[in-house]
Amino acid sequence: MPAPTPSRRWLTTCAITATAALFAIPASAAPAHDNSPFGARTLARLAAERAQSVGAMSPRLKGEDGDDGNEADEIAEGADQYAEARTSPGIVAPGAYGAAWDDLTNLPSTGGSWRNVTDLPYNSDDPRYRDIDSNSSGGSGNVTGRMAALAADDDGYVYAGSAGGGVWRSKRGGGHWQPISDRLPAQSTGALALDGAGRLWLGTGEATTNADAYLGSGVYVLSRPHHGTFSTRSRVGGDELESTTIHELRFGGGKVWAATSEGVWSHSTKTLKGAWKLEFAPNPDYLPGGSKASDASAAYKNIANDIAIDPKDPGKVVLAVGWRSGDDYNGFYTKGADGTWTRITSGLGDLPADADNVGNVTFARSADGSRYYAIDQSPEQLSTNPDSGLEGIFVSKSGSPTGPWTKIADYKGLSADGSALTTSGYMPGVQAWYNQFLAVDPNNADHVYAGLEEVYETKDGGSTWSTVGPYWNFTFPCWSIDPAKQTGDCNPTTHSDQHGVAIGSYHGKSFVYVGNDGGVYKRPVDGAQDASGHATDWTSLNDGTIDTLQYYSVGVGKDLDHGGVSVTGGLQDNGQSVLRSNDKVMGSDFGGDGGDTLTDPANGCNIAEEYVYLAIQVTQNCAVNDGSWVTDSSKATSYNVAPADNATNEARFIAPLAADAKNPSTWIAGGRHIWVQSKGYAIRSGSEWKSVYDLGAGRTATAVAASGGKVYAAWCGPCNNQGFARGISVGNADGTGWHDISLPVDGTVPNRYLSGFAVDPKNADHVYLAVNGFSRHWTEGPGAGVGHVFESTDGGTTWKDISKNLPDVPTNSAVVTPNGGLAVATDLGVVYRAPGRTAWQRVGSLPAVAVLQLKPSPDGSTLYAATHGRGIYTIKVRDCG
Fold this sequence. Notes:
By secondary structure, the chain is mostly beta strands. It is built from six helices and 58 strands. The strands form 15 sheets. The protein has a five-stranded mixed beta sheet with strand order 3-34-33-32-31, with no helix packed on it.
C-alpha cells in the first residue's frame, strides 16, 4: 500500500528567517528573506510553495530590502513571529538576558517547587494515535526536544547539548540522562567538545540561525565531566563572548578556537583566565561598540561557521565565514605571512571560493590527518534552487584545509542513494543552512557520517553514499500503518533535521551518536544496512530521563476514561503530545510543528490542535485511531477546521486561539480577522467560523481572549522593526461593538509586541496585558517604552503599568489565579503578584528556560507551564500565594 503522503504533517524547523529570542538579531534585519518551505501541511503544497518562492530574494544581504508583499515574504513573515516578539521595533543590546536573569534570581520566592510531568518517554510512533494528521509510524520512535551538539568519549560517557534545555550526561553509552548545566544563566547549546585532557568544553548560544535559537553567555569548561556540573565559575575568559552564538569549538596549537556570531576568537587551553582574543571579524565596525553596531544588519556581518586547523601545521588555519543568505564577506580566510587574514580566492579545487557559494560550512578531519572533509551550503542555491541549498560535500585528500578539495556528493546524488527526499521542492540539503553535521570514523579516514535533513554514510571516502537515517519511512515500500508495528516492515530511523554528531565507545564497542530535532539516537559505527542502504540498528536514546521538549502551548482536561487529567501541548517539530493519567509513555496524535492548544476542561480528549498559520485540527477522542482511515476516510477522527486566514497566510506562524472563559463552546481565533465559532469541539469545517472583525490589511493578531462574550484582540502590523505598529481591538463575540483602542504614544503601553491577555473571571472589563520584548534600556529603536505587565479596569480603554519590580524580560502570557493573584510567564521563568500586593515574586526555581504559556487545571488548583526547552511543569496554586 503506498504511503498516504498527502495527509502527513511535514516536519519542519520552527521558523526560518532570523535568530532571535536570546539572539540579538531582529527578525526583519534579514533584508533578504529565506525561502525555506514553511506553512505546507502536505508534501505537494510544500513543494509548490518552495518552487514559487524561488527568485523572491537576492543571495546578497541588502539593507534596503524589505517586505514587498509577495507570497515568499508572507511565508517568511509568519515564520518570524518568535523573533519579532522579542526584538521589534529595534535591536536588543547584548546583556539584556543576563541582567534579567540576575534580577529574577534576586526576587523573593513564593516557595513551593515545580514538578515535571513530561519526564517520561514520548513515543512519536505510538500505535494508539495513527490518525490522519499524525506522523505515527514514520519511524522516529521516542523523541525529545532539539539537540544542537554532542560529545562522547571511550568510557561510555555521552554529552548532549540541547537547543533550550541545557546539557545532559549519560554514563551508559546513552540513556539514563542527568542535567549538568542547570546553574548556568544560559541553557542554549552551540557547541560541545572534549579536549585532549578529557575536559568538556561548552559553547553556549545555539548557532542554527533559526528563530527560536537563543544567545549564550560564553564558553565553560568542565574539568571532570564524568562527575561534575557546569558552574558560572568555570567560564573561560571574561564577557567577550556573552550574547553570542557559538557554532564550533576547535583545538590546535595550545588554543581553543571559537566560531561565533561575532567573528572568530581564541583562548589558551592552559588557563581559563584572561580575555578571549578576537582573531578575525570581517566587518569589525558592526561589532558591539563599533561605529555601525546599531545598524539593522549588524548581527549578520560577522558570522563565523567553523575553523579548520592543519594537523601537520597548527599554525595553518582556515576560517569558514559567512551569513547563510549571502554577503560580500562570505568565504574562506587564512592568515598571511604578515599576520593578517585574507580571503582565499583560488586553489581550493572544487570547493567554491566566491562569496555567492560559501554559506554555512562544517569541517571534519580524520584522526590520522590524511583527510579533511567539508559541507558547504550555498547562498545562491538557497536563493535560486527550489530543491536544495546544498553546494556539496567535499574532501581534501592532502589532509590540509587549504586543499585541493574534491566534491564527493551533491543533493541529486544523495537523493538517489535511498533518501526519502526525492520530490521536487524538498530534497537533501533544502535546509542545509539549518541542518549540518560531519564526523569521520577515528579508525577509518574514508568512513564518514554526514547530517543534513537525513543521516548519510560513506565507507569509501565519498565514492558511494547510503541514507542510513532517512527523513521518515512513509515513502518506502516497506512502510505500512499497521498499529501492530512501529513503522511497517521498515527499520526504525532517526528523527529529521540533523545538528550534532559524536563517535565514542561503550564496553569496547564504537557507536555514532546523532542529535536532531527529535533528540539523540545511536547505532554501531560499523552498523548494518538493508538492501536500500537504510540502517537496521538505530536506537533512540530519548528514554524520558532527558526532557528538552520545546512546547509552545499546554492544555489540561479531565481524563474521563481513567480519572485524573489529560495533559497535551504543541511542540517545535514534535507535533502534539498527549499524556493521559494512566500513561507510562506519552503519545503523539498530530505531526509537524504543534502550535496553540485548546482542551476541554471537562473532557481532556476534546482537543483543538494548531499546526501553523491557524491550521486547526479538532478531535473528540484524543485522535485515537488504528490507521483504518487509510482505506476508509470516514474513519478519521480528526477534522481540519482552519478558518480562512490559514489559506491566505494572514495569520502568525503560531497564531492565537482561545475559548471564552464563561462559555467554552465559543472559540476565538486570530489572523488578519478575528474569527468566532460557537460549536465548540463539534465543529467539523472551517466554514463554520465567522469573521467578526477585520483588523485591516497588513495586521495580524498576536493574542486573543474572551469572557462572557467580550473579546480582546492584540495585533501588530507591520510586525518587524521597519515601521513596527501594534494595537488592541475590543468587541463582542456576536460581531457587535468592535473598535480599536487608542493607545497613547507616551509609552503608557509600549510600542512592542503584545503577547497575552488575562481576563478577571469576575469582571470582563478587568483585564491584564503581557508585553514581550525589552525596555528602552535594552532596545535600540523608536518607542520601545518600558514595562511588561499592564492592567485595565475599563475594558481596555485605559491602562496602568503594574510591572514594578518585575525583571526587564519578555513576558509571554498571564493567568488570573482563583484567589485573584496574577501569574505571568516570562522568557526566564514564572513570576507572581499576590492579590492586594504590588510587588512580584519568583515562582519556584526553574532553570533559565522560556515559559511560553500558563494554563490552570480544571479545578484551578494547579498551574501548568509550557516551557520551550524543558517540557511541561506543574505547581500547586497555593504555593504561589
